[in-house]
Design brief:
The complex is a heterodimer of chains A (380) and B (787). Chain A has 380 residues and is of the alpha+beta class. Chain A is built from ten helices and 15 strands. Chain A has one domain. In chain B, strands 1, 4, 5, 6, 8, 9, 12, 13, 15 and 16 form a ten-stranded antiparallel sheet that branches. Chain B has an eight-stranded antiparallel sheet with strand order 25-24-27-28-17-20-21-26. In chain B, strands 33, 34, 41, 42, 44, 45 and 46 form a seven-stranded antiparallel sheet that branches. In chain B, helix 11 packs antiparallel against helix 12. The radius of gyration of chain B is 26 Å and the shape is globular. Classes of the chains: A alpha+beta (380), B alpha+beta (787). Chain A: Keywords: Signal. Chain A: This is Cytochrome c family protein.
Chain lengths: 380, 787
């Protein structure tokens, strides 16, 4: 699993992508472990966070293996296979829960590749509790329907969760200290435009540069199977102690997603692409045709920049969206449950854009920025 | 002093009002707001039950309902049959309303600062602040720092009183402006339904007022002399802060596409085609949140920002107040077609050489073209007037004014305020008697007289829980000044007898008294008229027949003997699903038990309770009440003038409420057993893997969230109240928005109408906090978890 970025690309970035230093191609080998040299990766990050973010994105989007129809990031462990409904210990990282037979039956009928990955898009709500509506140029059947989400994690994130036995709430309730994930912990959160089985619409999205995957979700006791288009992707890792936050989204999202205003208006991103991300986007988009319509919105490290949001994942609260500040509230208390980051202020609700004082977390154990742990269930 | 003082800043434009209309109960008793449940007994007539409501109720709510299908007891409520002559959609005109309100700034329709007044008088038409927008805003909601203000009828079946919740009033912009942070929410005053007889709600006017302490103000003066003067005069005159008073009038409906970019809709046509279209649009929006739309009502508005002084009511005009007396002739453009109407309420203030009258709510108006996209108002020609002093039989004019002074242009220019010059002699006469407004002539028409005593409750429209005790401050004035210490106020509780329409007031009584409630015409209930019996010895009132009631009122006539009616008594009507008991909901501190016999064929003895309170040195009296039963009490205050106790009427008509001293409250039920039941329910199932789903299906949804799901379909866009997954995913926000702390003032309190009994709120909080936030732990609950 080795891939090198072309010299041409890096030449084009020379003026701005100082992280590349001597114009050497980026080595995707073991990138989830930072090539085994975290100090070097931190130095690279410091030089140009945006360039490194794009290199990671490119590595994640290469085929998982020769001839594989799946991309690297698609093979990461989905959270629904980590936090099981019965609170049981999950299967090992590389082992997957089989796709439900009912899904495969439908998939075959639709002509899907049953040997390709099927993503379970089991969530529709963002952390502010709202959905993101599809609208604009989507087919009538999709107007007003929700963009769907999934959460995935890398091997070292998963292994730490298993090791700490916090894949269920029993384990979290038994914590005696804060969690501390390894530096090589990664998490991804993907946003998807639901296509279903509509070849015309699918082609339209493909023409707009969306990555199309095979997906399903459960509705009551039934499964809905169809194609979906990747509209946004958070990529985070713990390169720094308070994590590194990067986010990408398709540049055409405003055509297919809308605000929750009445009547709805096209969804836009108010936080980026940041000034630093813009030239890097231009270069990488030119070099990666398959990713050409995806843009890095920005990279947040601690509170710089103060706000960072993906229009597909933090749609309605972009003006109060800080990855670092919000995730720094990840905490669990056996008595109070998970920390409430919907802050009661000015007679309304605001979200943190700076780290809250330690005094707010008395009685809680911090979960090291990993809010996905909220999805854990009790083992009864 | 108030906004009638100088200097002033004038504002004007349009307001939008976006109520959810399925629960307004203008004509159908769909929602039993006393018990806070759907009115299942009423719905039974349509074969809608708790078991099939999920599939049947909302479709029924949006389908035209033929008059023949409406139960008799609904048609019988006086005034209702007149507004149900043709099929009506129970959900009415704005199914998806969210209670938002505010000023309109859309395309060419802008709500802006229009002018001002110099510290010594003198109109200001040029200033950087002029033509800047102004807006009432609510509390921040996540990424929306400026959510809208909200308004809520205190009672869903009494349109008379509406509370306006907001967080701030913002004038201008970051370079030149003023932000006024809320201290007091608003309650409409002087809502004069009488003018609806001129042609409907479009003719009705109301006044709103709130005040801001000076420490609540954030000034960005920029180059604005208007702001600079106001700030300087506030300090120089040692004002307490600023007062904002505005009038709303010329309310119109179905203006989508004109004042906004919502899809055009006609909800006021009774043609089958139009109603089918409305039904289809509602259904489409119920099926898909992407198609949800609003259909707000709109009003014209003018307002004024001025100084607020000590001893002035924060939420109602203080100072000298004139109330209507004799009717005056009015006409539009031709003197040949006159009508007779009473004027509205007028506040008056003398300052220096000026007598300022607040005519914002004084003179009736009409839409020049009621079918215009954006209706424009004109004042009726209501004659010429002298304002003067009455001393016994003697009337001494102080100043005069005519149509040119109160016509629409003048009204718009100075927000309805008229400044009249006072001679030195007139200034001297001001305090020698009571104010009076006359139309001069051979036989002068006394159009308005001074209401010497006024009493206003600062905490009006409060919500109280059964069992709780609350003290209300009543500010009492005599002749516009704080009442002398020791002034006695009598207080009595009144209620409304119907769970629909907007109806007259009856004294709350504690025995099983009976009396004629209304006269019923079985052949044509449109002829039904209310009975307003009085105690023996009191003056009786003439019965009136109305076409429509409250917001729907179109016309009124006196009942005549030719009306073939038979009386229906209170006790006869009480068992129906449209009745509300007139039993007391409040207990007064220091109650005085009284009884009286009614002038009524049944001659019932009525046992009731009143209390007396006295003003302190500041003219403020404290009234302490304890809530004993859920409901919608309206307190009425009677000032004792001299040694004689005031007459406390058994009943009084809705159309005089706008000049009475009334304080609407809402008493929420207490259901302590529900809290225990919830704990018990959880403890039976907590070890089950599906415990979370079970407690939702068997308790949280059916007992707490279900009525709100039906009554507020807009919630489906943000937090569908029938969807456990969606609520679990928004539980952090839910916990904040249902908190007790937010119930009192936040514009985001859930439900927005604040009708969440504390027991249900406690259960919901415990469920959210102890179960959902902890992912349904296999741990039993106990009652101490509510702490």
């Amino acid at each position: 699993m080795r891939r090198a970025l072309s010299i041409t690309v890096l030449s084009a970035l020379a003026g701005l992508a100082q992280a590349q230093g001597a114009n050497t191609p980026f080595d995707c080998t073991g990138f989830l472990q930072f090539g085994g040299d975290i100090d070097k990766t931190r130095a690279t990050f410091t030089q140009s966070p945006e360039t490194l973010a794009w290199n990671w994105f490119a590595c994640l989007n290469q085929p998982a293996a020769a001839q594989s129809p799946d991309l690297v990031w698609e093979t990461m462990k989905p959270s629904d296979q980590v936090y099981l409904a019965n609170g049981a210990q999950p299967l090992p990282y590389a082992q997957r829960v089989p796709v439900p037979p009912a899904v495969l039956t439908q998939a075959q009928a639709m002509g899907m590749n049953v040997n390709r990955m099927f993503h379970n898009l089991n969530a529709t709500q963002q952390v502010d509790g709202l959905i993101l509506e599809m609208g604009g140029q989507v087919p009538q059947a999709q107007q007003g329907q929700a963009v769907r989400f999934q959460l995935l994690m890398g091997p070292d994130t998963f292994n730490y969760i298993v090791q700490q036995k916090v894949y269920n709430v029993n384990g979290q309730a038994a914590l005696t200290s804060d969690l501390n994930f390894p530096s090589t912990a990664w998490e991804l959160k993907a946003a998807w435009l639901w296509i279903g089985n509509n070849p015309t619409y699918q082609q339209q999205l493909a023409n707009d540069g969306y990555y199309i995957a095979q997906t399903y979700y459960q509705q009551g006791s039934e499964y809905v199977v169809g194609y979906a288009a990747l509209s946004g992707l958070h990529v985070i890792n713990k390169l720094n102690p308070d994590w590194v936050w990067t986010t990408f989204e398709n540049r055409n999202n405003g055509k297919y997603t809308v605000t929750n205003a009445i009547p709805p208006t096209p969804m836009t991103n108010s936080t980026g692409p940041t000034t630093a991300a813009q030239p890097v986007n231009v270069s990488f988009q030119a070099s990666y045709p398959a990713l050409a319509q995806y843009a890095l919105i920005g990279v947040q490290s601690n509170t710089t920049p103060t706000l960072l949001a993906n229009s597909q994942l933090e749609s309605a609260f972009q003006s109060m969206s800080s990855c670092f500040a919000c995730h720094s509230t990840a905490a669990y208390s056996p008595n109070k449950g998970y920390f409430n980051f919907a802050l009661k202020q000015q007679g309304g609700i605001v979200y943190p854009t700076a780290e809250l004082p330690a005094s707010d977390f008395v009685g809680y154990h911090k979960l090291d920025f990993v809010w996905s742990l909220k999805r854990a269930q009790w083992q009864r | 002093m108030s906004v009638l003082n100088f200097p002033r800043i004038y504002l004007g434009g349009h307001m939008f009002w976006n109520p959810p209309t399925a629960n307004n109960n203008d004509m159908y008793p769909l929602y039993d707001a006393v018990k806070m449940q759907m009115n299942w007994r009423f719905l039974e007539a349509f074969k809608i039950t708790p078991l099939n409501a999920a599939s049947n109720l909302l479709p029924w709510t949006i389908a035209p309902l033929a008059p023949a299908a409406v139960p008799d007891y609904v048609m019988q409520v006086p005034g209702n049959a007149g507004q149900l002559a043709s099929p009506m959609i129970p959900g009415e005109w704005n199914l998806f309303g969210d209670n938002a309100c505010g000023t309109v700034s859309y395309n060419q329709t802008q709500s802006v600062i229009t002018g001002g007044e110099l510290p010594d008088g003198g109109y200001v038409s040029q200033d950087p602040l002029i033509n800047q927008s102004y807006q009432l805003l609510g509390n921040p909601f996540g990424g929306a720092p400026n959510s809208p203000a909200r308004f809520v009828d205190v009672s869903p079946w009494q349109n008379t009183f509406t509370a306006l919740y907001f967080d701030k009033l913002v004038l201008g912009n970051a370079e030149c402006g003023l932000t006024l942070n809320r201290e007091h929410r608003m309650l409409d005053r002087f809502l004069n339904f009488n003018w609806a007889n001129l042609g409907g709600l479009a003719y009705v006017t109301t006044t709103w007022q709130t005040c801001f302490p000076k420490e609540n103000l954030a000034w960005v003066i920029g180059n604005s002399a208007l702001l600079q003067n106001l700030q300087a005069q506030m300090a120089q005159q040692n004002a307490k802060g600023l007062m904002f008073r505005f009038t709303t009038y010329l309310t119109c409906y179905d203006k989508n596409g004109i004042f906004n970019n919502y899809p055009p809709i006609d909800t006021h046509s009774s043609t089958p085609e139009a109603q089918a279209k409305v039904q289809a649009m509602y259904q489409q929006a119920l099926d898909n949140v992407g198609d949800i739309f609003f259909n707000p009502a709109y009003s014209r508005t003018v307002g004024c920002l001025g100084l607020w002084f000590e001893d002035e009511f924060p939420t109602a005009p203080a100072g000298r107040r004139l109330v209507p007396a004799q009717k005056v002739p009015i006409y539009k453009t031709s003197p040949g077609t006159t009508s007779q109407v009473q004027l509205g309420v007028i506040s008056a203030q003398a300052h220096g050489t000026t007598l300022s009258l607040d005519l914002g709510n004084a003179f009736p108006f009409y839409p020049i073209d009621s079918k215009a996209d954006i209706p424009v108002a004109a004042k009726y020609q209501a004659g010429n007037y002298q304002i003067g002093i009455r001393q016994g039989a003697q009337f001494s004019p102080l100043a005069s004014f005519g149509y040119d002074d109160y016509q629409q242009l003048a009204f718009d220019k100075r927000a309805g305020i008229l400044d009249l010059p006072l001679t030195v002699e007139a200034q001297a006469q001001l305090q020698t008697g009571s104010l009076e407004l006359q139309q001069p002539g051979t036989t002068p028409i006394i159009a308005a007289t001074q209401q010497m005593w006024t009493a206003e409750v600062v905490e009006s429209a409060s919500f109280i829980d059964v069992g709780d005790t609350k003290t209300l401050q009543v500010m009492v004035q005599y002749d516009g000044q704080p009442a002398p210490a020791g002034t006695t106020l009598w207080v009595a509780e009144y209620g409304n007898a119907y769970m629909l329409c907007t109806t007259d007031y009856y004294l709350a009584f504690s025995n099983a008294a009976d009396f004629s409630l209304f006269n019923n015409d079985p052949q044509n209930p449109a002829n039904n008229s209310p009975c307003l019996p009085q105690f023996s010895g009191a003056n009786t009132l003439l019965g009136q027949i109305t076409e429509g009631t409250g917001r729907q009122l179109m016309a009124t006539r006196l009942a005549v003997s030719a009306d073939q009616t038979t009386p229906v008594t209170y006790q006869q009507f009480l068992p129906t699903p449209a009745a509300v008991a007139l039993s007391p909901t409040l207990t007064f501190a220091n109650p005085i038990a009284l009884q009286g016999t009614l002038q009524d064929p049944l001659s019932s003895n009525v046992q009731y309770s009143v209390t007396t309170i006295q003003t302190d040195a500041n003219g403020i009296a404290n009234l302490t009440v304890t809530a004993q039963a859920p409901g919608f009490p309206t307190l009425r205050f009677f000032v004792q003038d001299g040694q004689q106790a005031p007459v406390i009427p058994f009943s009084f008509p809705l159309n005089q409420a706008f000049t009475d001293f009334l304080a609407p409250l809402r008493v929420l039920p207490l259901e302590p057993q529900m809290q225990q039941d919830f704990v018990n329910a959880w403890n039976l199932i907590y070890q089950r893997e599906d415990a979370g789903q079970l407690i939702w299906e068997t308790f949280i949804y059916p007992f707490i969230l279900q009525p709100f799901y039906y009554l507020y379909p807009i919630m489906s866009k943000y937090m569908p109240l029938n969807n456990l997954t969606r609520i679990e995913g928004a539980v952090d926000q839910l916990i904040v928005l249902i908190s007790k702390q937010y119930q009192e003032e936040s514009t985001l309190a859930m439900p927005i109408t604040r009708d969440m009994p504390q027991s249900r709120r406690a259960v919901l909080e415990l469920w959210a906090q102890a179960l959902v936030k902890r992912n349904y732990p296999p741990i039993p609950l106990n009652m101490s978890d509510y702490q």
